[in-house]
Amino acid sequence: MTAEATTEKARIGAPSIAGFTEEGEQLVPSKVDRHHSHGVQVMASRAERLTSHDVADFALPTGREEEWRFTPVRELANLLSDAPSDGDVLNVAVEAPEAFVQRTLRAGEAPRGATLVPADRAAVVASANADEALFIQVPANAELDEPVRVVLTGKGAGRRSNSHVVVEALENSRAVVILEHDGSADHNGNVEVFVREGAQLTVVSVQLWEDDGKHLAQHDAEVAKDAVYKHIAVTLGGKIVRLNSNVRFAGEGAEAELLGLYFADAGQHLEHRSFVDHNVANCTSNVLYKGALQGKGAHTVWVGDVLIQKQAEGTDSYEKNQNLVLTDGCRADSVPNLEIETGLIEGAGHASATGRFDDEHLFYLMARGIPEDVARRLVVRGFLNEIIQKIKVPALEERLTEAVERELAAGDN
Amino acid sequence: MSTLEIKDLHVSIETEQGTKEILKGVSLTIRTGETHAIMGPNGSGKSTLASTIAGHPRYTVTSGSITLDGEDVLEMSVDERARAGVFLAMQYPVEVPGVTMTNFLRTAKTAIDGQAPALRTWTKDVKSAMEQLRINADFAQRNVNEGFSGGEKKRVEILQLELFKPKFAVLDETDSGLDVDALKVVSEGVNRAHAQGNMGTLLITHYTRILRYIKPDFVHVFVDGQVVEEGGPELADRLEEEGYDRYVKGAGSAVAAPAAAQA
Ligand SMILES: Nc1ncnc2c1ncn2[C@@H]1O[C@H](COP(=O)(O)OP(=O)(O)O)[C@@H](O)[C@H]1O
Ligand SMILES: [Mg+2]
User: Fold this and answer.
1) Cα torsion at A64, A68, A71, A72 (round to 10°)?
2) Range scoring the smallest mean pLDDT among A133-147, A299-313, B68-82, B244-258
């Protein structure tokens, strides 16, 4: 079989696609190992999605809701309950200049809660049960050579952890903040980001959980005038990870780039959702998520919403998801949604492609003298490297490249 | 001087209806410097022969042998065959996601030579080979064959032939789907590789038109998994006039007859 690929130009307000099934939590439908849907939209507009700080506003999801239909919610009961963190569940190590981390923020203490308003049950119970939010504030005009690094280590599978992290890059500062997740826990973690005027901030969220870790997250950012925000989600470990990366703007001339890389093995459910709300004129956004899948029951989901509001004239926006399926029995769901409420834009486009690496690819490369293991690595490394090289932190890039190699090696057994 | 020797080769494939024998005793000997044309109707087993030489896992050799200078090719894995000097220009080159042409060419060259090519000369070699084959320079940054047209894919196959310098080249219908200009460009590439004097060529084709540009020393007519007639270049001229009908009727095969009707 040769590579299958579909690329579609922007379709506005597209209806649901015939033949698209809504299995919700059925990971491996028989005989379906490649799945591509397009433009499914149940609500009239993404803008109508409920957001609230009040737990009572969100019922427990059943798996039939639009935003939960791909997620194995039955395995998430612990994470979705309105419950405090278990004792000694998470170790948080912060590597940052002292001036950057001076206090924590309680609920309602500014700027906490100004940008991140929970958009689903997981996010609302996380913030409601995270009493103190880690607050990283990059001073105005600061330029950091070293990234700020926060390592969150879970101390046991099935133990509930709630967290809320606030990152604020003050005017004209430049910084990279890396959040690394490892160990194991039922971790419900929100991240709230403010990129103030003229600042340039990169937030990298790395998920290297052990096989039994579960992680739900809402990462919301507000990007001010002429500021540049880059969010990179890298998810390699964990049983279930669902990370929603959202951005909106607070001034013109702002740029947002939402990037992601995921590698799902047997039994992993890795879900990434992105939402760019073009609520202000003359801003730019680019979304690119790339994923590799290998092994029975490997399931990935990408849902990319872009909303270009009526007042957002001069918007330039593009979103793309690409998946590489390495073995049978995997499923990659990919759903781009683009809503455009004004015709006066620079550009808006989306693409979604799922390709298979199969015996014919292998034969082609081997017929050119390339040994099998090298051929596999060549393909996956080349594919995922596009995201890794955008991190621009050499030490982390190297570690992630090695982590991807280990994922591949695990698949060879 | 090298010799690729195919002796009484029988090959079958698994189909939904069970095992099917495609090659029914093929013998051929190709030496360095020689060009052999294999001509036959669709479905006669030409690609099966080419893919079997390269080691495609779909094809099972039930008897017979393939040797390269006495070494048992059938014992070698696909990549070992390529490193031993066998090159297959495929009828339908595969699109490989995620790998740029540049990266692919360098990795393959390194594997074949057992060492990385000297960077400076290699880059120059690639560039000039691409120019000669009229391949746009930006192809170097694109993924292997991804989105290339049929003709572009064929040129890229010949690009590899020129860069990898194999001992034996098997060209499976490299001419099909090419317009006259592209056919010329591609033929010149094959002739350049041949002119270096270290290569033998097995040129598989359905039509005679490529033989105007690449001169065969031997022509083998291939019908229903067997060589039914052999001769010099003059045999190609006769085929051009008479077609395959004569052989196909003689073979009386249920497989070959409908294929010939399409031809
Ligand atoms: N998947 C398949 N199932 C059944 N028969 C096949 C299959 N693939 C190839 N064949 C048969 O094998 C024979 C040889 O095919 P091929 O080697 O491609 O011939 P050629 O290259 O000369 O056109 C043909 O009769 C073809 O129908
Ligand atoms: Mg053929």
Assistant:
1) -50
2) B244-258
User: Hey, which residues does A214 pair with through a beta bridge?
Assistant: A186, A240
Cα B240 to ligand 2 centre (Å):
19
Do A219 and A245 contact (CB within 8 A), yes or no?
Answer: yes
Which token pair is A38? 């397009």
- With 0-12 / 13-18 / 19 or more C-beta atoms within 10 angstroms meaning exposed / middle / buried, residue A153 is middle
Contact A378 B103 (CB under 8 A): yes
Q: Is residue A326 classed exposed, middle or buried when 0-12, 13-18 and 19+ CB atoms within 10 A define those classes?
A: buried
Q: Identify the CA nearest to A95 among candidates A405, A393, A325.
A: A393
Residue B216 CB less than 6 A away from ligand 1: no
- How far is A5 from A37, CA to CA, in rounded Å? 13
Residue in A closest to B170 by C-alpha? A367
Q: What is the ipTM of this complex?
A: 0.94
Task: Give CA–CA dist A385/A408, Å, rounded.
Answer: 14
Cβ distance B38 to B15 under 8 Å? no
Whether residue B46 has its Cβ less than 6 Å from ligand 1: yes
Q: Is the peptide bond before A111 cis (omega within 30 degrees of 0)?
A: yes
CA–centroid distance, residue B70 to ligand 2 (Å): 28
Nearest neighbour of A367 by CB, restricted to B88, B143, B144: B88
pLDDT averaged per 10 residues in sequence order, chain A, 413 residues = 31 27 25 34 72 96 95 98 96 94 94 97 97 97 94 97 98 98 98 98 98 98 98 98 98 98 97 98 98 95 97 97 92 96 95 87 96 89 88 93 88 60
Whole-structure pTM value: 0.75
Which ligand approaches the C-alpha of residue B43 most closely? 1
CA distance A91 to A138: 23
Residue labelled with tokens 């024998």: B21
